[in-house]
Design goal:
single chain, alpha/beta, Alpha-Beta Plaits, 2 domains, 7-stranded mixed β-sheet, 4-stranded antiparallel β-sheet, 16 helices, about 40% helix
Length: about 475
């Protein structure tokens, strides 16, 4: 890092520190709102309004999604994008306490820490904007408000709308229980619902006149479970029955099942998905019902960029880890009492194989207190993210900062609790600093941008991007509106 870059980065970090109470308040507001994907109206408005008030040009409702927006400051190259998420998860409402206690019974909660995610990215963009405004750096900083990562793969729809076309570099992060660059791959995925229609009848009086849509759902599920033997080992198929009928004495004329179909690469998913559809069609044939197939979304696997990963790792080392207080440690000890007995084994199991020996010594620690080496390159993890789609249209890298105690289950009430208090806040502010100084370095170092883009362009020459989303499709807002109407 040159002397000028160091001096500028220092002033940016001081700006984030001096405004940290504002960012904590925004994060807490989004945490309290806990809005589900595609319906994050107030959360998106809060972020967009804050950026607009700071002088950003904001385009709202992009890609046919009312809660998607792009906020931009600056007019020169390079264009650096920072992704922000703010959607919550259903059924995870929780107070910021280490005992299970919903704020609203059955309500949503930020079980993946996206209130922290979006706010850290906001803070970084505002800090970089101050540096651009001062004339000390040249470039354009953009905040991409990306809704519905958890349920509808919002970034994919935004890509199809062309809003990333002129971006030179993209950075992002995610709350975790570790501090590391996320260098591993994630599964590509299709997110799809199968709706069966049959003929209602009295289940005891004249069942022979009925054609059960529920039978079709159950036969489809059985067929897909047999299919598991004949697909690649790393693929995953999982489902939930969302509609199964109204009463036992009525042959169900409508039933519905929601599937995720995953595999390590988009081409693997595109090969497996038609086979799942054939199973559904077979189930309809056997039950003399009809099936409608609706693709709700899809996400690609990651295209890694080692140039940017190395940059993020360097900046993480510069910033260091969050500093947790004795009160934070006590909260962590209490909430750990609610974890399964084998929680640390589960924690290790989800890590890349080459990372496990490094973290085995953390069993008796409440928090990860190191920046880990870069692990997991070439390894595919079990989950999926629409961040993968963005990595195929512009060079991208992401990292994680500890915002929970080690071993916190993902998508859990324990995660919600920590996202709404000081443990999550400290990780969030740390992430904002990493994003800000990494962006400063990119804007000050054109050759670094060129190197990252050269790596990206060489990789897409070998394998071009295949969007999982069909041409002409639109975000499934009405489907989710009907699904969530009582939530």
């Amino acid at each position: 890092m040159t002397k000028n870059v160091f001096k500028l980065s220092k002033s940016v970090l001081e700006w984030i520190e001096s405004n940290q109470e504002k960012f904590i308040e925004i994060s807490n507001d989004i945490w309290s709102l806990a809005e589900l994907g595609l319906f994050e109206e107030e959360s998106a408005k809060l972020l967009a309004d804050t950026l607009e008030e700071a002088g950003f040009t904001v385009e709202r409702g992009v890609a046919d999604m009312p809660t998607a927006f792009v906020a931009s400051y600056g007019t020169e190259d390079p264009v650096i994008a920072i992704l922000g998420e703010y959607d919550a998860l259903p059924g995870l409402s929780q107070v910021a306490e280490p005992i299970k206690q919903p704020r609203k019974e059955g309500g949503p909660g930020h079980g993946c820490g996206h209130n922290l995610f979006g706010t850290a990215c906001l803070a970084a963009c505002l800090a970089v904007k101050e540096a651009i405004k001062s004339g000390k750096i040249k470039g354009t900083i953009r905040f991409y408000g990306t809704p519905a990562e958890e349920n509808a793969d919002g970034k994919g729809w935004m890509i199809n709308a062309g809003v990333f076309d002129d971006v030179h570099i993209c950075l992002t992060w995610h709350p975790w229980d570790l501090n590391f660059v996320i260098a591993n791959n994630f599964q590509a995925m299709y997110n799809v619902v199968f709706q069966f229609k049959g003929q209602a009848a009295h289940a005891a009086g004249d069942p022979f006149n009925g054609r059960s849509a529920l039978d079709a759902v159950e036969l489809m599920n059985v067929g897909c479970n047999y299919l598991r033997e004949h697909m690649i080992p790393d693929a995953r198929i999982h489902y939930v029955i969302t509609k199964g009928g109204q009463a036992p004495n009525i042959v169900p004329d409508k039933a519905e099942v929601w599937y995720y179909v995953r595999a390590p690469r988009v081409e693997d998913v595109k090969a497996l998905y038609p086979r799942v559809v054939k199973v559904a069609e077979g189930a309809a044939l056997m039950t003399e019902t009809q099936v409608d197939v609706t693709l709700l979304g899809g996400s690609a696997n990651m295209l890694p960029n080692e140039t940017l990963e190395n940059l993020l790792h360097e900046k993480m080392m510069d910033i260091g880890v969050p500093e947790f207080s004795e009160e934070d440690l006590d909260f962590a000890r209490q909430i750990r009492q609610t974890f399964p007995e084998n929680f640390f084994d589960n924690f290790l199991a989800v890590l890349p194989q080459d990372a496990r020996p490094f973290f085995e010594s953390f069993k008796d620690k409440e928090f990860c207190d190191v920046i880990s080496p870069i692990f997991g390159r070439g390894i595919t993890m079990g989950g999926s993210t629409d961040v993968g789609d963005v990595s195929w249209v512009t060079p991208l890298a992401q990292f994680a900062i500890a915002c929970t105690t080690i071993g916190t289950p993902g998508h859990s009430w324990q995660s919600v609790a920590q996202a709404g208090m000081t443990i999550g806040h400290k990780g969030m502010l740390c992430a904002a600093k990493v994003l800000a100084i990494a962006t400063i370095e990119l804007m000050q170092t054109p050759e670094l941008v060129e190197k990252a883009r050269h790596e990206f362009e060489e990789k897409i020459k070998k394998t071009s991007f295949q969007s999982p989303l069909p041409d002409g499709a639109r975000p499934p807002i009405e489907y989710y509106r009907s699904l969530y109407k009582n939530k």
